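WARN  no MSA supplied for this record, continuing single-sequence
INFO  ligand: LJ64HWYM
INFO  echoing inputs
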Amino acid sequence: MAVYTHVPAEEIDAFLTRYDAGRLVSAKGIAEGVENSNYLLETTNGRYILTLYEKRVDEADLPFFIDLLDHLGERGCLVPRFIPDRTGKRLQQLSGRPACLIEFLTGISVTEPTPAQAKAAGAALGQMHRAAEGFSGQRRNALDLPGWHDLAGKCGDHFDEIAPGLGDRVAQELAWLDAHWPSDLPRAVIHADLFPDNVLMLGDQVTGLIDFYFSCTDIRAYDLAVTQSAWCFSNDGSAWHADRAAALVQGYVESFGLSDAERRGFQALCRGAALRFLLTRAYDWINTPADALVTRKDPLAFLRRLDFYASASPAELLGA
Ligand SMILES: Nc1ncnc2c1ncn2[C@@H]1O[C@H](COP(=O)(O)OP(=O)(O)O)[C@@H](O)[C@H]1O
Ligand SMILES: N[C@@H](CCOP(=O)(O)O)C(=O)O
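INFO  complex generated
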């Protein structure tokens, strides 16, 4: 459960008086998520999400996320909007943390996606990339290749407490990526964390894309690699689902397209995506405070994905 900051109900009720959002009826900490504290609010007006920003979200980046979701929403993407208070302010402080009131979207996150659902997610990612064209905001990806080196350095000797030999494996992979990263591919604003828990669905229909707090400017096809690494394996990373991968890529290609250069670079992008989540999970595994109400995510589930990507044929990753 991700609630790092506990906010008493009276404080949330008082916070709501800044908005035309009704009075608080109930507030529940949300079990999913690992980055921020999220509450589902029921008010006399309806449902809202209250997010308090923690850990990796820099308050200075919030205007980028707010403007991006405005831009995407205006172009038909199903993304939640940040709600302004009566003075038009969307970024607030609550319990000593930056906080925002956010539109609630319906839908559920699938845990075992079908190929049809994977195809819909690929299509939604492509639509998001199309809608993001023309967005003028820029945000550096702190979790890029240099960022992975930094994170690996911070984990240091602790890697081998997670699994013997993990430190060497990470160092070897970083060296491979340094030599093969396709840095000349087209760059754009990307989501960078489009896991199934960040896609709301009803049946095979996508009803919302959420959690843009890693969104940034980076290689556009890397977003497809991240999404594939999240959607096309069993949760523990031990089984690759070729049918989901083919459907996901097909959905993306039909809605946005993938150039020959992006196809050639795709395997390196997938290896980078797997390493990125291995590293953040390893860092969190080592550093999560004992009293945090959060379920740590298993770094080794992404080591297994990395091993798969390192030995796969480039064609099978693209569903050929
Ligand atoms: N706008 C929203 N509408 C509906 N549910 C949401 C919304 N935002 C977040 N949630 C719920 O809260 C959970 C955690 O949100 P998320 O943004 O993924 O947290 P974190 O940033 O901590 O990873 C989601 O899995 C979803 O269940
Ligand atoms: N998707 C990442 C962790 C970020 O969590 P989210 O709750 O923001 O999706 C992972 O699985 O390691």
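Residues 260-287 form the longest helix (28 residues).
INFO  checksum written, moving to next record
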